[in-house]
């Protein structure tokens, strides 16, 4: 992975086990807010669970199948972005992300995502990058839309969120269309 400076105050850092306590504290403080759109909150109940989550990202990274980065804003972790899946055969990366609620509304995720997509195309040799957002998750949808991803279709009942299925809008960007 990489250290990727975006601005003086914003950068992407490779996630490491040393981040577990801080990341768990951020998760804990944002549990209800994140639970609206992310399916894994009930499996993260302790810093050990977060350590396990980081370990699985590190294993994925070692096998070139994905990775996670901390979004650092003024030296603190504001959220996470990464490739939930890297398909090396087809050069496709599937991006996932979240921010602590207090860090919303400042353009941090759009900037982080722009940096990651650029790194994916130029540094990882990807040809296609994908972001899937629940159709009602308007804040998330605006990120690929701002970055020029194309809406490629809608997947019906693509994800189980605790008590309901949600449809996903699938957004894709090809290397040939990418304008950083
Ligand atoms: C999805 C999520 C990351 C979006 O966060 P966000 O703060 O809306 O996205 P950004 O950080 O890119 O900020 C964009 C907002 O900041 C505003 N903004 C303020 N200053 C800005 C600046 N200097 N530059 C750019 N945008 C700025 C933009 O206008 C925009 O607000 P708007 O959408 O109301 O117009 C966040 O809502 C989240 O983590 N949600 C829970 C988890 C989740 O849904 N994950 C995604 C699953 S697919």
Describe the structure concisely:
By secondary structure, the protein is α+β, with helices and mostly antiparallel strands. It has five helices and eight strands, in the order ββαααβββαβαββ.
CATH superfamily caption:
Gcn5-related N-acetyltransferase (GNAT)
Given this structure, which CATH class is correct?
Answer: Alpha Beta
Strand order of the largest sheet: 1-2-3-4-5-6-8-7
Name the helix and strand elements from N-terminus to C-terminus, one letter apiece: EEHHHEEEHEHEE
**Biggest sheet character:** 8 strands, mixed
Fraction in helix: 25-40%
Count of helical stretches: 5
The stretches of 5 or more residues where confidence is low (pLDDT under 50) are: none
CATH architecture: 3-Layer(aba) Sandwich
